[in-house]
Each structure stands twice: as C-alpha cells, then as structure tokens.
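User: Hello, can you help with two protein structures?

Assistant: Certainly.
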Amino acid sequence: MPPLNRIAEFADDMTAWRRHLHAHPETRFDCEETAAFIAARLREFGISEIHEGIARSGIVAIIEGQGEGPTIGLRADIDALPITEETGADWASTRPGKMHACGHDGHVAMLLGAARYLAETRNFAGRVALIFQPAEEWGGGAGVMVDEGVMERFAIDRVFALHNEPGVPLGRFRGRVGPIMAAVDTLTVTVTGRGGHGAHPEDCVDPIAAIVAMVQALQTIVSRNRKGTDALVISVTQIHAGSADNIIPETGWFCATIRTFDKDVQAMVEARCHSIINGIAEAMGVQAEITYERGYPATVNHERETGLALDAAREIGTGAGECDPVMGAEDFAYMLERRPGAYLFLGQGESAGLHHPKYDFNDAVAPFGASWFARLVERAQPALTPEAHPAETGVGV
C-alpha cells in the first residue's frame, strides 16, 4: 500500500530538508549545525519539548498524545562520513572530505516527516520520543546517549529505527527476529623483531615472516574452532611493514575486522587470537603487542516488536518480508540492549552502494519511511478515542 495521504502531501518538504542536510554534512559528534536545523523544524511543527546537547549534538524531542500511556522511541542517525563526494548532484556536499554516503540525511528527513504528521494528528496514546543521534559511523553515539540515560530520563519503553537499503525494490521493508546485524571487533597486532640487511636474514629476526604466519593461522579459527552453524568473519584488512627491497624491517603490523552474532563465539575468537599470535611470536622469536577492541555489539531484534514493525510496514510499503542477517554493524544495538525494539531495512531501489562516493539517498523513499514511523506509533499506542484525525484517514496519493 502507498504512504499516508498527509505525509505524501509534504513529500517535497522532506526532499528539501534532505537535500539541505546532504549539502551540509557533519561527522562524528560534531553535528551542531545539523542539530540546529532539526530543532528549528521541530519548533515549526509546534513541538515545544526539545532537549538538545545529548551526546554533545544529539536531540530528544517529545510529542504528547491523547492521555496517559507508554513512550515509544523513534531513532534517526544524523552524521555523515569522511568521504569525498562524486555524485555531481546539485545538492552535493559543499564540505570537502565529508559526505552523506549512508543516507542518514534521508533518515532525518523521514523522522522529521513523521514528527510533523504526529504533531498534527496526535492520534495515539502516551508519548513519542524522537531521537536524533550523532556518531553512528564512528564513536557509538547510540551507546553514549544510552549511557547518558535517555531511556530512563524520557521513560522510553521500546525503541525502533530503520535504514535505507540500496538494491532492494523501492518501498519494500525487510527485517527479522533475533540478530539482524553483527557485532564488530577490531584486532591490531604490532610485531617487533630485529632488522637488518636483506642479504643476511640469519642475522635478523624477521617480523614479516611472523606476520604472514599469524595471518594464515587466524583463518583456522573460522575453519576449525567454530561450529558450522555459527556465523563468523575474520578479515585481515591491513598489513604494513618494510621500507626498501633490501632491508628486513624491525617492526610491522596488521589489523583485522571480526564479525560475530553470538557472545560465546565472540569470546572464543578473542581468546584464540591471543593464543595463536602469542604462540607464533614465541616460536619465531618476535614480540607481539596485541590490541583486541570490542566495538558495537550485535543488533538483536525483539520478537514482539519485530512483528509490530513488519505489520506496520505491510500497511504502507510495497511489501514486507524477512531478511538474512547482515555482517555489517550498527550502534542502534546499544539501544536494543537497553529496551525492546526492532530495526528494519527499507528498499530504495537501484543505486550506488552505501559508503560509496556516488551514493545518494532516493528521495522517493522518504514518504514510505515517514509513514512507517507514524503508523508504527498508531499501532503500538492506539488513541484513547476511536475517531481518527481527518488528516490521518485513508492511504494513497
């Protein structure tokens, strides 16, 4: 089914908001201008309870519904990426080296669209907490907001979010119960030997040979230490050593990204990395300095909330179905660890992939996402009176 009538009416406004944000990207926690733009729009919608400066540049705004009831949280990430844009669009980034290459500008536009509709109709019980979060791409802004107490401070009972998905038909929602995105850990190893002339390796302790052995041995964790049913990826993504063709270097280093869904598998991998690397280091006479950094946890959807989210999606999307788990990571996981909720994907049709310099959010997606947020609230927290606001009735353009 198509988006809600009222939301479809201000699709052009959502496009304008999105393109303004796209032209003025900000990264990490440094999203003050973005936050100011968001707060100005919320005030235009008549929303007066706006809490700014959470996790430095995050916002939580409250919309009161009809009478007493729970508080539902709706989250949009607001930060961009350190990428130089290559779209050539009229609304392309005006800030070199910064770009909305993951569609967070579109996520903001969708939540603003839902906010405008919900502030007009108030066709729900309890409250809606609009969460605009910085630093999803780097810094775990969701975790910072949680640590600063947003769930308790605003009495949020459950929380929802979505992400655009290139390559999936426009308006099609996808989700699943349980793990939907992976935990991400980073392994960094610095290996120190004894450098010297490449013609006399017998006088040296070669860190490159040790690094090669370590990299190869780490893959045995995937092939020999996990059950075949346990999802696990270990990808060595950087190796750095040496400066000339006739010099054995003193040091070298490598790093890897590790993706898991299960906490026991995650713990096993961390322990095996230390054991394998230290064992090879001792056998080859080098020193190994290991840094194993646990990043975002797995994003795990709750059963009841996922059903609610997909039911709402079926009302306003071009379809809704199950997806396979994704080995990418998402810091919304921190919010789902603290409160029940769900995270869905929303198809935006064919486009460049996420984090690509030619990616651009498809503005035709915004009415679907905004309508999903709005319908989700109305389904989760039905109004105390049966009469719907006139602006809410009916679907279609």
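That covers the first. Now for the second protein you mentioned:
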Amino acid sequence: MDEEEAALVADVDRRATDYLRGIEQRRVYPDQRALDGLGRFEELLPDRGRPGAETLALLDDAGIPATIATNGPRYFGFVVGAALPVAAAAERLMLAWD
C-alpha cells in the first residue's frame, strides 16, 4: 500500500468515526435541504474517474446528511440491518484481505 492509498484509508476511517460519534445528535430522517443536496451526485458519466479523496469528500459532504440514522438511539422503524461498529470493523478487515 502506498502513501496515497494509506491516506485514503485513514481519511475514510476518520470520516466514519466522526459520523458514528455524532449519531446521537443527528436527525433520524434527513431534512429537505439534505435531500436536495443529493443532486450533487447527478452528473454525466465522466471519461475519467475522479480522485479517491475527492470521491470520499463528496460522499461525506453530500451523502451523509441525507442518510437515515438507523443505528442511532432514536430510530424506531423497521429493523433494516444497521451496522454496529464491531461489524463495520470486521468488514473493513475483510475488505483489506480481499
């Protein structure tokens, strides 16, 4: 793994940790502004992919506000399979093995 790849892994780990640390303060369901922000994903298929760090930033900035906080303490909907931190960590390890 080179330095750029290691930086991506560290960046996504930090973003995921920040998300989980703030889950108790998040809205259970996104507001209209967050849903409107999903429009940032509407684009033509590019000739070349965007840099990994830019993709992660887009997912974090536009995607996270529009998530449904099913793994938070105030979600009383259907059981849809929210990931516990240990399950996400195990998946992260398995992805490294692949």
